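Follow-up to my post from last week.
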Amino acid sequence: MPQGQPVSVPDDGLTTRQRRNRPLLMVHTGIGKGKSTAAFGLALRAWNQGWPVGVFQFVKSAKWKVGEENALKVLGASGEGGSVVWHKMGEGWSWVQRDQQLDNEAAAREGWEQVKRDLAAETHRLYVLDEFAYPMHWGWVDTDEVVEVLRDRPGSQHVVITGRNAPASLLDAADLVTDMSKVKHPMDAGQKGQRGIEW
Amino acid sequence: MPQGQPVSVPDDGLTTRQRRNRPLLMVHTGIGKGKSTAAFGLALRAWNQGWPVGVFQFVKSAKWKVGEENALKVLGASGEGGSVVWHKMGEGWSWVQRDQQLDNEAAAREGWEQVKRDLAAETHRLYVLDEFAYPMHWGWVDTDEVVEVLRDRPGSQHVVITGRNAPASLLDAADLVTDMSKVKHPMDAGQKGQRGIEW
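User reply:
Got it. Predicted complex:
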């Protein structure tokens, strides 16, 4: 929930309403828990506004079927809010033919190509690019290109990117950056991740 | 998503499975965005496990009808996951009679009394105590009592508490603490909160 008032009002020629409704680029980074969960919490708000939501999960393994996926699919199908499209790299992006056998690097790039196509077509109003900081950090996807494409995206499309080690130039370009800082985690006390909490 | 392995395995007489499934007390604090959204993202995972979820919104105003409320109610009613019960202080807790006219302090305490009753009865498996750090910080609810009740709660009940200025003794008692640190927020650039993003 927003606290208080803006500290300054910029001389940008926009009305308060125009400025308020500017599409945002948001980044959740840091080593603490809550980066992805907060992004999916944001997707609930978008869904509730009737916005089309596109999720791109840039994860390596298909082992992880997160609870958010089921939940958002049920919401998308309920007919009460916006639509939800869920793309997952782990199982091979649905639009990529099975016989292509992409390695992780090529798969990450292929995901980004689809994001670009969707942005150009204004397919969604909120994009959750989950764990997308990693392929940028690893150099699999060109960060300069990502920043340029996101800066020049048409219309009113919000984007949230999660993952550790988000590149500095992405943070520079972002409107909102939260660093999820770990103060304490059960793993430090020898407790492994558990269902319902970690996925 | 959990990264890696525990750094040490405690000599607590528990099996890995027992330790893994210990109920957690989680706190999302700090001045950055994402404390509540991450808590509601967690609720999606709990719902997906079929767990009963109880939400207690400790907010002062009834103005805020957050998107998460609609979304979780649709999910709870879908019959596909767990149940969802949503309690809201802003409109007056539903179990409190309208003619009681509680002030904010009394209302916060009344919310906590209900949390205690539900914990004792093991009503839910995940409790989202949204913005509950504030009444503790303000001294409206006794933090020592909260810590004691949460430490001694029966069964397998996970609790997540959000809000700035979470008291130190709560953090000490917690299994997981994330500080949502603000790196950048649109309000710093004179942009007010917008629907779909902030609520």
